[in-house]
Amino acid sequence: MTSLETNLRSVQERIAAAAQRAKRDPKTITLVAVTKTQPLDVLQTAYELGLRHFGENRVEEAETKVPHLPSDITWHMIGHIQSRKARRV
């Protein structure tokens, strides 16, 4: 088991426990994996582990990753987006 897989399982367990405490269905909670500075192979591994929501905070970095990953990923731009880059988002 890779460290990414171990970390993902840990986070999913914590989400499930928090959902139970809040009397929520854990399936209604979306885990967004922040991909800032991560190489494509790590993102591909995360995808293979079942993640489908990825977050990026730099438009330029997202533009280099999105075309190389499966199209069923939902991308989230996180953080402040400069107005001059909003159209690209």
Q: Can you characterise this structure?
A:
It contains 3 helices and 3 strands, in the order αβαβαβ. It is an alpha/beta fold and 89 residues long. It has a 3-stranded parallel beta sheet. Helix 2 (40-48) links the parallel strand 1 and strand 2.
Notable characteristics:
39% helix; alpha/beta; three-stranded parallel sheet; 89 residues; 11% strand
In short:
A three-stranded parallel beta sheet has the order 1-2-3. It contains three helices and three strands.
Overall pLDDT metric: 93
Helix content: 25-40%
Looking at the chains present, what oligomeric state does this protein adopt?
Answer: single chain
Shape: globular
Q: What's the SSE pattern?
A: HEHEHE
Let me know the number of strands: 3
**Low-pLDDT runs:** none
Radius of gyration: 15 Å
Question: What composes the largest sheet?
Answer: 3 strands, parallel
- Estimated structural class: alpha/beta
Total helical elements:
3
Euclidean distance between termini CA atoms: 35 Å
Beta-strand fraction estimate: 5-15%
The spatial strand order of the largest sheet comes to: 1-2-3
